[in-house]
Amino acid sequence: MQFIPIPLFKQPHLRQYAQQLYQQAFAAEDRFPFWSLRLFSLRAAIRFDAIADKGNQPIGFVYLIRGEGLLFVLYFAVDAQCRSQGYGSRIIVALEQQYPSDTIVLDIRAPDAAAADALQRQKRLDFYLRNGFQIAPYQWVEEAERYAVLYKGNSFNPQSFATLLAKTTFNLVRPTLQAA
């Protein structure tokens, strides 16, 4: 498995693949404009990578923000045709190997039995818990939605998390974290 940077102007097939998967895997209200992801990925602290299997066939992508001792996984998607084959777990292991001193942080829509996608939310949480993530004692609150913050590593520092996002997004993303 390899991580292949998605360049701003080269390799349009990777960019198109990632954009299509991005639109399929994430609800519209959870997506930034795709052009902004590409633009922000020019920053040294941000990686936007396609993930390919042994045959160089794209099977997913990750969008990572690194700093403050954290690796924030803003977006992580595996192609629907490749799910339940262990790729997601192997990608997490690969991230741990590439960033052994960083705490990996991500957020997911908080479990909510009344939500239309309650089963999907629970499955996503179960996947991350099976892969060694812990639930942080904070939730990211954005408008009417709550996101569970998960981490894998030594600890989760909410101030470092907020600082990282503010610095790398020119203060466009400023998470409101509340005790869970």
Automatic annotation (TrEMBL):
Positions of the N-acetyltransferase domain: 4-152
MF term (GO), any: acyltransferase activity, transferring groups other than amino-acyl groups
InterPro entries, A to Z: Acyl_CoA_acyltransferase, GNAT_dom
SUPFAM superfamilies according to UniProt: Acyl-CoA N-acyltransferases (Nat)
Top-level lineage group: Bacteria
Name this protein carries in UniProt: Acetyltransferase, GNAT family
Originating species: Kingella oralis ATCC 51147
Phylogenetic placement of the source organism: Bacteria, Pseudomonadati, Pseudomonadota, Betaproteobacteria, Neisseriales
